[in-house]
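Progress note, sequence design subtask.
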C-alpha cells in the first residue's frame, strides 16, 4: 500500500466542511474554467481561420499560374493549358487544378448599372470549391455541347442590382466590337469577403473563350489546390523552377497578404491570452497547496516525529494536488467540449456577416490540439503542485507540533 496516497485520500475526506474545502473547490473551478476557455478559444479560432481560408481558397486556390505580364488588369494574356495541365497532374502534392479566365463587364438591369468581373471556370478537372459558398438557387449547369448561360451572383451584387434566382440580366463587354450577352442567375453565393463579393460573377469559361475568340486549348490561368496547405512554400519552390519563363506563379498568401497577416495576428493574441489563463489557474493551485500545508502543519510535525521522510509527506500533498487537477480537467473538458458541440450542431451564437465574414461562430474539432491543451494544463498544474511542497523540508517537528 502506498502510505502517502492513503493519507492523501484520508485528508480529502477530513477536509470536508473546512476552510480548505472551500479553497480546493475554488482551485478545481479555476482549472475547469481555464481549460474550458482554452478549448473553446482554440476551437473558435481554428474554426474562424479555417472558414476564412476556405472562402479564400474557393476563389484563388493555393497557387495560381498565369501569363507573366506587367499589366495589373484582371484580364490577362491567355496560356496553353493542355501540356500545363498534364504536368500539374503528375505532381504528387497537387490535389486539383481548375482552369479559369476573367472578363470585365457591365451588368445593366432596368434600374441599376454595375461593373463586375466575370470569372469563367471549367469543371472538367474537378468540382469547383465555389459550390460551398452557394446560399440560394443551384450551381451552374455545364453542357458538353455549348457554353452555359448560367451565372452565379454574390449576395451583395444581387441585392444592389435587385436580381434573384431565375432572373435574366444583360452583360455588356467593352471590347472591339462591343458585345452583349444575356445570362440567367442560376444561384447566389456569399463568402462575406468584400474582395470577392463586390467584384466577381461566376460563369462558364467557354463564354469568355467565345468573347475573346480563343480556341478550347487557351485559358486565362490555372488554379492549383494542394493536398496539404502546410506544404505550400516547398511546393511553390519546386513548381517555380519547372515552369516556363513566361509563366507567373503566385501564392495565395501573397495575393491576399492582408487577410493572412490578420489571421496570424489573431493567433498571436490568442496564444498570449491562453498563457495568462494557465498562469492564473496554476497560481490558484499554488495558493491552494500552501493553505493545505499551513492547515496541516501540526500533522506534518507529528508525521516527521514518527519517522516520515520529507519525500513521503511531499508525495502526500502531491497526490492531493493531482486529484484536484484531474477533477478540474474533467469538468473543464465537459464544459468546453459540451459548449463546442452545442454551437457546432445548433448554431446558438450568430454573427453579422458584414463584420465577421460568416453568419455564426464557427467550431473546428482538432483532437490533437485538445489533447495538447490538456497536457499543457496538466504539466503546468504539476509544477504548481510541486513548488509549495518544498516548504515541507523547512518544517521542524518540534515547532510544527506546537504550531497553532
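Output:
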Amino acid at each position: 500500500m502506498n502510505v502517502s496516497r492513503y493519507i492523501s485520500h484520508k485528508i480529502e475526506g477530513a477536509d470536508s466542511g473546512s476552510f480548505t474545502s472551500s479553497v480546493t473547490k475554488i482551485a478545481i473551478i479555476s482549472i475547469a474554467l481555464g481549460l474550458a476557455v482554452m478549448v473553446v478559444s482554440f476551437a473558435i479560432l481554428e474554426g474562424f481561420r479555417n472558414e476564412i481560408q476556405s472562402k479564400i481558397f474557393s476563389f484563388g486556390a493555393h497557387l495560381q499560374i498565369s501569363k507573366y505580364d506587367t499589366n495589373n488588369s484582371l484580364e490577362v494574356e491567355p496560356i496553353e493549358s493542355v501540356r500545363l495541365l498534364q504536368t500539374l497532374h503528375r505532381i504528387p502534392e497537387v490535389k486539383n487544378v481548375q482552369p479559369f479566365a476573367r472578363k470585365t463587364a457591365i451588368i445593366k438591369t432596368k434600374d441599376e448599372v454595375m461593373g463586375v468581373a466575370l470569372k469563367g471556370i471549367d469543371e472538367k478537372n474537378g468540382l469547383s470549391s465555389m459550390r460551398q459558398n452557394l446560399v440560394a438557387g443551384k450551381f451552374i449547369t455545364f453542357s458538353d455541347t455549348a457554353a452555359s448561360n448560367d451565372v452565379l451572383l454574390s449576395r451583395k451584387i444581387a441585392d444592389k442590382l435587385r436580381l434573384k434566382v431565375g432572373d435574366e440580366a444583360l452583360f455588356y463587354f467593352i471590347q472591339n466590337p462591343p458585345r452583349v450577352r444575356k445570362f440567367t442567375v442560376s444561384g447566389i453565393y456569399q463568402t462575406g469577403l468584400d474582395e470577392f463579393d463586390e467584384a466577381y460573377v461566376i460563369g462558364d469559361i467557354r463564354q469568355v473563350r467565345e468573347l475573346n475568340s480563343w480556341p478550347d486549348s487557351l485559358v486565362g490561368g490555372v488554379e492549383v489546390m494542394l493536398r496539404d496547405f502546410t506544404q505550400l512554400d516547398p511546393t511553390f519552390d519546386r513548381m517555380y523552377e519547372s515552369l516556363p519563363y513566361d509563366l507567373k506563379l503566385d501564392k495565395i498568401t501573397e495575393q491576399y497578404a492582408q487577410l493572412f497577416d490578420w489571421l496570424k495576428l489573431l493567433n498571436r493574441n490568442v496564444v498570449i491570452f491562453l498563457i495568462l489563463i494557465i498562469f492564473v489557474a496554476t497560481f490558484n493551485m499554488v495558493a491552494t497547496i500552501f493553505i493545505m500545508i499551513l492547515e496541516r502543519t501540526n500533522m506534518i510535525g507529528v508525521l516527521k516525529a514518527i519517522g516520515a521522510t520529507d519525500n513521503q509527506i511531499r508525495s502526500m500533498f502531491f497526490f492531493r494536488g493531482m486529484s484536484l487537477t484531474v477533477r478540474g480537467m474533467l469538468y473543464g473538458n465537459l464544459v468546453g467540449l459540451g459548449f463546442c458541440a452545442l454551437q457546432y450542431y445548433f448554431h446558438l451564437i450568430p454573427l453579422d456577416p458584414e463584420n465577421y465574414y460568416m453568419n455564426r461562430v464557427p467550431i473546428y474539432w482538432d483532437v490533437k490540439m485538445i489533447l495538447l491543451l490538456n497536457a499543457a494544463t496538466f504539466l503546468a498544474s504539476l509544477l504548481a503542485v510541486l513548488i509549495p511542497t518544498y516548504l515541507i523540508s523547512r518544517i521542524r517537528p518540534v515547532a510544527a507540533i506546537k504550531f497553532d
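The longest strand covers residues 94-108. Work on this subtask will continue into the next period as scheduled.
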